Amino acid sequence: MEERVLYWVGCVTSFRYPDIARAAVQALRKMGVDPILLGEREGCCGDLLFLTGQLDAARENAERVLRIIEAERPDVLVTGCSGCYRAFTKGFEDVGLKPSFRVLHASQFIEELINKGAVRFKELRMKVTYHDPCELGRLSGVYDAPRNVLKAIPGLELVEMTASRNLARCCGAGGGFFGLNPDVAQELGLIRLRNDVLPTGAEALVSACPTCYMNFYYIIAREDLPIKLYDLMEIVNMAL
Length: 240
Fold this sequence. Notes:
The protein is α/β, with parallel strands linked by helices. 47% of the residues lie in helices and 12% in strands.
């Protein structure tokens, strides 16, 4: 692949769910992409600084992050984190910064590869439903790319929740709320799972945000709910 692709892991994925990062990198390599990885140099995108209105600190952090990334001369930054995606696009724009590289959520990047005919999925027989993360959906307007990726996998059946896209209920954990009040965050997530997810009859819930994944993971385990949980890139990797 001609483009220099930098895969931005993100804090939640790095520290809580490194298996998701490994699946993403494996999937990219299977598709002929050898991503640049920053490792310990990655740092934080500063999403929570933007969301909490700490714009001076957010800009200072963003400038530091940009220096590190631009030293690698990437053509495109790909991230599987909806919060990181929003920070690099809307957040950086809010403080007057514009990266010299394209920024794509992993779903958008995979969708581009699918449209170019660069991806060959194998059959994956599974019935799934997709949860729209707030920062990827309502705050960034990315609804179709994750669905198009899932629909491109032979044998995979995507069933929609009644409350989806711009009407999707929040997982309960975003914007730092899980850190502020994890009990309430999990109660909100339980409402999403019981009222919207389980009625679809799907065997698995797919999200494209590690914070959503985190909250759902804890709730599903605690309540012993009859549904599996996957990040989108784990599904992609399974189908390659």
